[in-house]
Amino acid sequence: MRKAISILMVMAILSVVFAGAVGAQNVEVVVIDEYGELVETACVGEEVEVSVVAENDGETAIGNALVTLTEDPEGALDYSPEDAIAFFNEEGFDNDVNNQFFFFDLDLGAWVFWIGWNGPMNTGDIVALFAPAIVTTTGDITVDAVLWDWAGYPEDPDDAGPMLLDADSYTFTGIICPIDIDDVEAITVPMEVTGTPLAGLILGLLTILGGAIYGKFR
To answer: Which region holds residue 28: left if phi is over 0, alpha if psi is between -120 and 50, else beta?
Structure first.
């Protein structure tokens, strides 16, 4: 499983957070790097991973749970849904393009982690999403996660709309990182047809011109 060690570590960290939660249904969102560390700053163009964990610690099942993900500013993260993975309790799944649990909903204008893809969220269930994304802008970037229960979603959503269960957000900063000199290819001087470096040719011309000018002064 991709990044299994970092995923297990983050799940352990978030389980501690949930231990002190008051509500019966909880959602937590963080942004982590490739080592599983919380991201405070990230370079534009760098890949980060948005991690969502939801828990049902109530006495009743959540019939059709989903988490909506939005970011401020809009478009600050460019997700790769084909690389997303999810854990329903301890079982991991890849995001099959033909049977997705993570996708963009045009009507909602948000990315959706459809927990109901795996069935009702029973008491004691813990689910997690790990979705890679590229940082596209500088400044503060806030990821908002909202946990809902919406009967019938997405095929035939109840007209009454979703029921809000919990919400959370995480903010980090996008920055422009300096170019690593080691990664920049050496700049070569153009060569003329005979193979003599252009810089040498220029130097020769300057020498000739200098000699002519000096002769005139004499």
So the answer is: beta
b/e 76-100 (16+ beta carbons within 10 angstroms → b): bbebebebbbbbbeeeeeebeeeeb
pLDDT band at 181 (very low <50, low <70, confident <90, very high): low
Q: How far is CA 13 from CA 10, 19, 92, 179, in A?
A: 5, 10, 18, 34
DSSP H helical segments within the chain, as ranges?
A: 4-19, 198-217
Quote the tokens at residue 215.
């002769």
Q: Which helix (H) or strand (E) holds 53?
A: strand 47-56
Strands 41-43 and 163-175: parallel
In angstroms, rounded to a whole number, what is the distance separating the alpha carbons of residues 195 and 193? 5
Local confidence band at 90 (pLDDT 50, 70, 90 cut-offs): confident
Model confidence over 113-124: pLDDT tens digits?
999 999 999 999
Query: Which residues are registered as beta bridge partners of 114?
Result: 66
- Structural contact between residues 79 and 133, judged by C-beta atoms closer than 8 angstroms: yes
pTM of the shown model: 0.76
> Cβ-count burial of 114 within 10 angstroms (0-12 exposed, 13-18 middle, 19+ buried)?
buried
User: Which residue type sits at 127?
Assistant: V
The conformational region for residue 108 under phi > 0 = left, psi -120 to 50 = alpha, else beta, is alpha
Q: What is d(CA 93, CA 137) in angstroms, rounded to the nearest whole number?
A: 30
Least confident of 22-31, 179-188, 195-204: 195-204
